[in-house]
Structures are given as C-alpha cells and as structure tokens.
Amino acid sequence: MPDTLVATERDGAVLIVKLVNAASRNSLTMEMRQQLGAAVKQAEADAAVRSVFLTGDGPTFCSGGDLHHLKTACDPWPVHRRFRNLSRWLTPLITLDKPVVIGVNGHAVGGGMGLALTGDIVLAGESASFISGFFRLGAIPDISIMYHLPRLIGMARAKKFLFEGQSFSAQQAADLGLVSRVVPDAELYAAGLKEAKRLADGPAEVMGLAKTLMARSFETSLHDMMSFEGFGQALAMSNPEFREGLDALIERRPADFIGAASASTQASNGSAE
Fold it and tell me: Are 130 and 106 in contact, with CB atoms under 8 Å apart?
C-alpha cells in the first residue's frame, strides 16, 4: 500500500486534494481518513487557501468503507472509536468556512457517496455513479449521508434511494440536484479546478460565512435566521472583500478580492508584531 493516500498541492489560492489509492478504489481506510484530516487542517490553517478542490484518482472516486477492516473491527468499541475519530476530519470538512468543490470520477459508493455530498459545488464526470450499498451490507448509512441526502433530494426520495439500494447515474444525480453539473470524464479535473479557482477569486471569506449560516437554515426559525443574517451581514460588510467589491462595482472594474484579503492579512500580521 502506498504511503501517500491523499495528495495535496497548491494551484494559486486553491488547495487540490486528491485521493490516490486507486488500487483499493480509494476506500476510506484509517490511513486515508487520517490523511484527509491532515488535508482539511491544512486548508483551515492557511489563510492563502481560499477554496478546496477534492477529487479522486482512477476509475472510482471512493468506494466507501474498507471491507477487510470492517470484518475485524465491528465490535462496539472499535466502531465507537472509529466514528468518534470521524468527527475530527469529516465535520471540519463539512463546516470548512471556505468553498469546497468536489469532482466525482467514476463510482461513489456508500461512504464515498457521503464524502461526495460534502461539497458546496459537486461536479460529476459523465460516467460517474452514486451507489447506496449500505443495506446490502447490513449497515446504516453514514459519512453524513443521513444529514445531506434528505436535505438535497427530500425525505421520500432519500428513503427510496436507500431502502431500495438504488444507484444514480451522473445525469440522474444532476436532475435531482445532487450534483451541480455533469461534464465529460476527460474534462472533469479541469472543470473542477476552474470552478474552485472561480470561487477562490471571489469573496471566499464572505462565502464561508454564508455557508456557515445556511447550514443552520433547516433547524432554525425564520425570526432567528433573519437575526443570523443581520449579524452575518455586519461581519461581511466589515470585511475588506466587501469594500473591494463595492469599490469595484462603483468604479466599473473587476474586483480583486484576493488582493484585498491578502493586504488585510499582511496589515494584521504587521500590527500583531
């Protein structure tokens, strides 16, 4: 097994995260989870990273759980420890206050489908498929599927998909709103990176704030949600990205959000010294 299961590289303000264990169909082994966690921490900690592009290598985006590991680690405490550790990388990925683009190449199976649905923007290659698989194994859906799937396609469709052990083609997933766009397989990487760059070039910090607030919308009253919007807008309009966007609109020029954020970070670092 290769030592590097999750490769990261920077392309400007985009952190590219690639699952590179094609031999095991990018299954979520403990080592894979640990390296995904390290990549998420890297995205969180580096202010110069303004968006993330996550994709896989080979014919499978992610095949879900490591079946060989599950066979020997299904007693209550090993499972409990595994899911306790899950919150150390999956929750930070879902709540990352930067835009996340996911490019689904090939099959996204079980927990691999859950991983795919963590993206803010999900692109799928035309041969991609989204497969349930949990009840075939005798396990309940995990990797946040029971959180995301009903929100994306509704409770009735989510139950039908899961209980019937269905699979969605890329186009079916797009028609239901699971993915944002379907592209030719050969163009997936370029299209995903382009989308991540577009988001990085925008007001990424403000997008992250909006993402945090929208995550509360299904459990929050109208009154409280409008209060959150007000508090969030107070923060957004004090951000240099807003000032740059407003000036650019008035001056009829392209906005330089990255430059505005970078200048603000440098000024803060200087004052801290």
Answer: no
